[in-house]
Design goal:
By secondary structure, this protein is an alpha+beta fold. It is about 35% helix and about 20% strand. It contains 36 helices and 48 strands. The strands form ten sheets. A nine-stranded mixed β-sheet has the order 40-41-42-44-43-45-46-47-48, sandwiched between helices. An eight-stranded mixed β-sheet has the order 25-24-23-22-28-27-26-29. It is found in: Nucleus; Chromosome. Component of the FACT complex. It comes from Geodia barretti. GO terms for molecular function: nucleosome binding. Pfam families: Abhydrolase_6 (PF12697), FACT-Spt16_Nlob (PF14826), Peptidase_M24 (PF00557), PH_SPT16 (PF24824), Rttp106-like_middle (PF08512), SPT16 (PF08644), SPT16_C (PF21091).
């Protein structure tokens, strides 16, 4: 049974009377001093009228042949008996309200002769207020006997009629929550029909070149509205109707109004204007879009400008603003920015909508002075009419118009909210771009299905069709010319901005005025004084106290020799390598600088002088640490732009995703949280209450990557300006959840049809689908938010992607376009990852750090090492901002070259090729020094293989044979790949650093060469001695080369030797090795000698490890320090005799002692991992017992837990031959403990291959020792005491499966590691020196630099 909504009736009646009886002049003018309101409705079928609008607004239904008289204190309604019974519940409701008029109901006579009742009701008007004027809707002209009878009775009363249509329209313009909810459902249907039918239908017509009339397409749209497949669930199909007949216009004939009708002209493939409006439960919605087929640049610019005007209107639609001011703001923008379009701009910007589609009295026009109220609904429609397209190929395309519109809601705070924003308006969503092949094939015979498939789905293209190759080369020639022209124009437009501003460096002046110099007793007595306030140190020099700022000190060291304590202070000076954390400026680099100063104090004449020097050492270290920490924090804030405040949306139903992790991690360990969308941004809140805000305006790129072939599903945001998280700036923020786990069941036979396995796989598939849908729905809801201008891109992971630029939808595939592989493998950082194109980017999001290249920022792409016999090549991205460091992807399979060429060609990106690796640091520095001269000499044409310049370079270098490694990263110019700085620094005074690096690479000085020659002579003599005459420690190494003792194998990274096929041989060639006889055992040792350095870094691997696991750290440290790493017996390339007694912890410790004694230097640093850290603690305990602990200046311990790993205790209890048999199962178990689900599979495969050398009888002995918890904990406790004041740091992976994070933290605490010296490595597993090698190398390098001197 149909019932009237009493609550809505009372609320709206109260609003009507409140507005009618208002005392302000504005309302009195609107209502015309009406004493009563009279509304009569006949039986006419009228779509829009004020009378039916009032009925629908108050009662929810249209009541035919009904008379309503609204008096000051009473409401009278005359209607049929059935309608009166429908309204009767309202009578009881109004009777209980003293502040509202009473309701009197009158039933019509049976013979429909209502003359007597008409006379009675006409007399009632005289009793309301003054009884002289009645308000009517003058434009409503209903017919019928009922209406005529009332008009006759009304003329006898002789009252004045005034039109109150505008007043009623303004009174009901602000919508309540129920009305807004209904309008939202109507908007949902409108957007669904437009996106799923209108757009796709037009794309199909254009693609298949059908001849369709405007009217026929409009009829199809109207029919689609009634189809249930376009109806969202939960909506009543019977309540849907069309607002107006859909409007389709094209071919130069446009009328930008809603009263026009679709013509019978055929659809023109140019500019297409589409208008669609749908009513749901009598409430209207509307959407207007302009679609393009191959739009010109001018058309795109005009459309983009129209969108900016539209945004201005939305931002102006606020409560209290006059309607005319909104239009004037848009018109002023047109006059200011594009005055030539003023005459083309529409005469109004929209109107209020609701039950009536268009309120003609409430227009966004220059004449309407009424204010905007919260809750008003507008159809915002703006356009540019009568524009000219001079590039059109036909007459119909010469003239075009632009028209866009949406249904918007005036919010309480902020700009208006788009209710039809789901239907996107961006050029990438409404423009159709056709490929060249469409035109070439339209006149030719259609190929058969096999030919189509063979052409479109090519998984491995080895030979190009000549026609395709010719087109590609022709396009590349055009792009080469365009790239140089655009770059030169860009340089001329921003010439004034090319002058580099020198960065503001910290002042190295200790005291700005002599009065600030301290007068303490230490200064007066010519002692070293550390001024904590001014961060300076006052040193006595020849009886004069000289102040030095702490930033001028490079490092400081303390040593004890005999009865004296020495303090050595090293200073920065021009030409020395400046650390990034120091930022020291030299205003006068030609002056004389002090390099170092040393002070000595005797301990025989009392302890005061020696202890004072020790205190000075510690105080300087403390002040230096504080200064560097502060400077580092300042640098972290550089480039950070403060985001606008997040405007929280307090309404329920905000898009939300729960149980997400975030990268980077907030704090020391990852915690789940919730991501929620608000008015102008996103907020991530962890379970601990930490918050991270991402404002839409600061999001540069957004990505959604489902879980297909991945272990996580994620949303990734690439920011325009970095934001601060945990005191560090980050530009990439990622939210993800894990969708599976790697599990291997032990102890039973697996079967492919096992029911449990099938159920588990099905459950995982369902979980993946559920999470993908949740993330995708969140993405769609966020994109539909009114202020969100973010469009999520999805990496292409299918067989192919559409080659002809951005399409209407991600899954749209135009039939005549070529399909190519959409992904390839490469090494953007340190490990091989899968690189996937999106619409505008090239990305890898699952590995950390993420790799994102925005194609719009790329000037050109250069391929290096492209030769016929090579298996891999490199790819260099040169950005339009020449001061930005180029991005390099190495080790790309050569089979992907043609596919990548075609992809770049389709993106209109110029690419070049070369056979050698270039020094891009020097190239970009040269370009930045003289950009204008660079382009005057041909610009980027020097990279073209056909250019004379490159041919000359090839001729000059033919004698230098080049043998790059297929699997290694080839980078010219030393360790430049570790630098994340841009090229700005090269033009800002730091060129001396690069000059020094070049001089160091060009050749060593005579002292170093003589030292290496002497060392080689000693080794040759050692090799010539008979074995029985050799000492307990002898070396066997390959014969040294003529230029020193470094073998060719050790120069592999410079490209002089090709990489071997298997990882083990590749590691041997890269690191180099020699055999040392230690305690009668032959061990493999890796050594890097730097004769000028008195620092030696020892690398000690753990149980089952090897020296090669430190290969990244060896690369980083080998140029500055002596580096020694050994393979313990039974590990790596050391032999593994079947004698269990040789593999005990005591035996390994003795071997480590011997190696240490041979290679130690004045200052020694030990870096150890896991079980190797236990050996290190025993070694330091031994040194402490001999009074030699000062030889070790620092210790780095990685992946060390407080207790023995219980998981490997089983190794010591199972026979060795059984362990060999169970090796595959043991490997699966160890992989779960050593690695994380995110570990690079290539790394896991390589480590598994290398571990084949580990014999199980060796692992059995080590497993027994490692599982001895009493020995393990005793070693840590005794080691903490033995370490004493030796500086130490701990590193561990947050996802270590051998030693979980809490036990690593406990071990660090027991060992007395300072809070700031414990470094958790987010996302890394047990082998953190491999998984997070860059972080580990950075931390170790900084730590050693702090401890050691030059």
């Amino acid at each position: 049974m149909v019932k009237v909504d009493s609550a809505a009736f009372v609320s709206r009646l109260e609003r009507l009377y409140s507005h009618w009886e208002g005392v302000d002049e504005e309302r009195e003018e609107l209502w015309g001093e009406a004493d009563a309101l009279v509304v009569v409705v006949g039986k006419d079928d009228v779509l829009y009228s004020k009378s039916t609008t009032l009925h629908l607004w108050l009662f929810g239904y249209e009541l035919a042949d009904t008379l309503c008289i609204f008096c000051a204190n009473e409401i009278h309604i005359l209607s049929s008996k059935k309608k009166i019974e429908f309204i009767r519940p309202l009578q009881e409701v109004l009777a209980s309200r003293a502040d509202l008029p009473k309701l009197s109901l009158h039933t019509r006579s049976k013979g429909e002769n209502d003359a007597e009742q008409f006379q009675t009701l006409a007399g009632v008007i005289k009793d309301s207020k003054r009884g002289k004027k009645i308000g009517v809707f003058s434009k409503d002209n209903f017919t019928g006997s009922f209406v005529e009878g009332w008009q006759t009775a009304l003329r006898e009363v002789k009252v004045t009629q005034v039109d109150v249509s505008s007043a009623f329209a303004f009174a009901c313009a602000a919508k309540d929550e129920a009305e807004v909810s209904t309008v939202k459902k109507a908007c949902q249907v409108t957007c669904t029909v437009f996106s799923k039918y209108v757009k796709k239908e037009i794309v199909t017509i254009v693609d298949e070149e059908k001849r369709v009339k405007h009217s026929k397409l409009a009829d199809g749209i109207e029919q689609a509205v009634s189809e249930t497949k376009y109806l969202p669930p939960g909506l009543d199909a019977d309540s849907l109707e069309i607002c107006y007949s859909p409007i389709i216009q094209s071919g130069g004939q446009y009328q930008l109004k809603f009263s026009t009708v679709s013509s019978d002209e055929r659809l023109h493939f140019g500019t297409i204007v589409c208008c669609l409006g749908v009513r749901y439960k009598s409430y209207c919605s509307n959407v207007v879009r302009t679609m393009f087929v191959e739009p010109t640049k001018e058309m795109q610019d005009n459309y983009t400008f129209l969108l900016s005007v539209y945004e201005t209107i939305l931002s102006s639609l606020k409560e209290g603003v006059k309607l005319c001011d909104v239009y004037n703001a848009a018109l002023e923008m047109v006059e200011r920015d594009r005055p030539e379009l003023k005459d083309n701009f529409t005469r109004n910007a929209g109107f209020v909508t609701g039950i009536e589609f268009r309120e003609s009295s409430l227009l966004l026009s220059p004449k309407c002075q009424l204010p905007i109220r919260k809750g008003m609904l507008f159809n915002v429609n703006i356009g540019l009419a009568g524009l000219t397209n001079p590039e059109a190929q036909d007459t119909a395309g010469k003239t075009y118009s632009l028209f866009i519109g949406d249904t918007v809601l005036v919010a309480e705070d902020g700009p208006a909210v788009e209710l039809t924003g789901v239907s996107k308006k961006k050029m990438s969503s409404i423009a159709i771009f056709l490929g060249d092949e469409d035109k070439e094939q339209e006149n030719g015979p259609g190929p058969d299905i096999e030919e189509q498939l063979s052409k479109k789905f090519l998984t491995n293209r080895t030979r190009m069709e000549p026609a395709s190759e010719d087109r590609r080369m022709k396009r590349q020639k055009e792009l080469a010319k365009r790239v140089n022209e655009e770059a030169m124009k860009r340089f001329q437009d921003h010439k004034d901005e090319q002058i580099s501003k020198r960065p503001k460096l910290s002042s190295n002046v200790a005291y700005k005025h002599v009065s600030s110099v301290p007068r303490d007793a230490e200064v007066q007595n010519f002692r070293i004084f550390v001024d904590r306030k001014y961060e300076a140190i006052v040193l006595p020099v020849h009886g004069v106290p000289l102040p030095f700022h702490i930033s001028t000190i490079k490092n400081i060291s303390k040593s004890e020799e005999g009865d004296y304590v020495y303090l050595r202070i090293n200073f920065f000076f021009p030409g020395s390598s400046l650390g990034r954390i120091d930022g020291v400026a030299f205003p006068n680099p030609d002056a004389t600088f002090v390099k170092e100063m040393s002070y000595r104090a005797s301990s025989t004449h009392g302890v005061s002088a020696a202890s004072s020097l020790v205190n000075v050492f510690h105080t300087i270290k403390e002040v230096q640490k504080r200064f560097r920490t502060r400077e580092q924090e300042k640098r972290e804030l550089e480039g950070v732009v403060e985001q606008e405040a997040l405007v929280l949306n307090t309404m329920k139903g905000n898009p939300r995703l729960k149980d997400l992790y975030m990268r980077p991690v907030i704090g020391s360990r990852r915690v789940q949280g919730t991501l929620e969308a608000h008015t102008n941004g996103l907020r991530y809140t962890t379970l601990k209450g930490d918050k991270v805000d991402l404002v839409y305006n600061n999001i540069k790129q957004a990505f959604f990557q489902p879980s297909r072939s991945e272990m996580i599903v994620l949303l990734h945001f690439h920011m325009k300006s970095p934001i601060i998280i945990s005191k560090k700036k980050h530009r990439d923020i990622q939210f993800y959840t894990e969708v599976g786990e790697i599990v291997t069941t032990l102890g039973r036979t697996q079967h492919m049809h096992d029911r449990d396995d099938l159920m588990a796989e099905q459950a995982e598939r369902e979980l993946r689908a559920k999470l993908d849908n949740a993330f995708d729905n969140f993405r769609k809801k966020v994109e539909a938010l009114p202020q969100c201008r973010v469009t999520f891109e999805k990496p292409f992971r299918e067989l192919g992607y559409v080659l002809a630029g951005p399409s209407l939808e991600v899954d749209t595939c135009v039939s005549d376009q070529e399909i190519l592989p959409a992904m390839f493998h490469g090494v953007p950082h340190r490990s091989t990852v899968l690189l996937q194109p999106t619409t505008h980017c090239l990305v890898n999001l699952t590995e950390q750090p993420p790799f994102i290249i925005v194609l719009d920022e790329v000037e050109l792409v250069h391929f290096e090492r492209v030769q016929f016999h090579m298996r891999n090549f490199d790819m260099v991205f040169v950005f339009k901002d020449y001061k930005k460091k180029v991005a390099t992807v190495t080790a790309i399979p050569m089979t992907q070259l043609d596919s990548i060429r075609d992809w770049l060609n389709s993106c209109d990106k110029k690419y070049t090729e070369g056979i050698q690796s270039l020094n891009w640091t020097k190239i970009m520095k040269t370009i930045n020094d003289d950009v204008e001269g660079f382009f005057s000499q041909g610009g980027w044409s020097f990279l073209d293989p056909s250019s004379d310049q490159e041919e000359a370079e090839e001729d000059s270098e033919m004698s230098d044979e080049y043998h790059p490694s297929d699997a290694s990263t080839v980078v010219s110019g030393g360790e430049e790949e570790d630098s994340d700085e841009d090229y700005t620094s090269l033009s800002e005074g730091d060129s001396s650093d690069y000059e020094e690096e070049e001089s160091e690479e060009s050749g060593k000085d005579w002292d170093e060469l003589e030292a290496e020659a002497r060392r080689a002579d000693r080794e040759d003599a050692q090799l010539d001695r008979p074995e029985e005459e050799s000492s307990s420690l002898s070396r066997k190494r390959p014969a040294p080369s003529k230029k020193g003792s470094t073998s060719k194998k050790m120069k592999l990274r410079n490209g002089t030797q090709p990489m071997a096929e298997d990882p083990a041989e590749a590691e041997r060639q890269e690191l180099g090795f020699f055999q040392e006889t230690v305690q009668g055992k032959s061990l493999r040792v890796v050594e890097r000698a730097v004769p000028s350095s008195e620092v030696c870094v020892f690398l000690v691997h753990g149980g089952g490890g090897r020296a090669g696991q430190f290969k990244h750290q060896i690369r980083r440290l080998e140029n500055d320090y002596n580096v020694v790493a050994l393979d313990f017996l039974g590990h790596g390339d050391s032999p593994a005799p079947n004698e269990p007694r040789l593999y005990t912890a005591d035996e390994h410790l003795e071997d480590l002692k011997e190696v240490y004694e041979v290679h130690k230097k004045e200052q020694n640093v030990i870096i150890s991992h896991c079980y190797g850290a236990v050996h290190t603690l025993h070694l330091i305990k031994w040194l402490r017992g001999k009074g030699r602990a000062a030889e070790v200046v620092g210790v780095v311990m990685m992946s060390l837990g407080a207790r023995a790993p219980a998981s490997i205790g089983l190794l010591g209890k199972v026979p060795a031959f059984v362990l060999e048999w169970l090796r595959p199962l043991a490997r699966a178990s160890s992989n779960r403990a050593l690695f994380t689900p995110h570990t690079d599979p290539t790394l896991i495969q390589s480590e598994n291959f290398m571990s084949n050398n580990n014999r199980m009888y060796v692992m059995k002995v080590i497993g027994a020792d490692c599982s001895d918890n009493e020995m393990w904990t005793a070693a840590i406790c005794e080691g903490a005491e033995a370490l004493g004041d030796i500086p130490r740091i701990c590193l561990y992976g947050t996802e270590d499966g051998v030693f979980p994070e809490p036990t690593c933290q406990e071990a660090a605490k027991t060992l007395g590691v300072a809070e700031g010296r414990c470094h958790p490595l987010e996302g890394a597993g047990h082998l953190c020196m491999l998984e997070a090698h860059k972080q580990v190398s950075d931390i170790c390098q900084r730590f050693i630099a702090e401890l050691t001197s030059d």
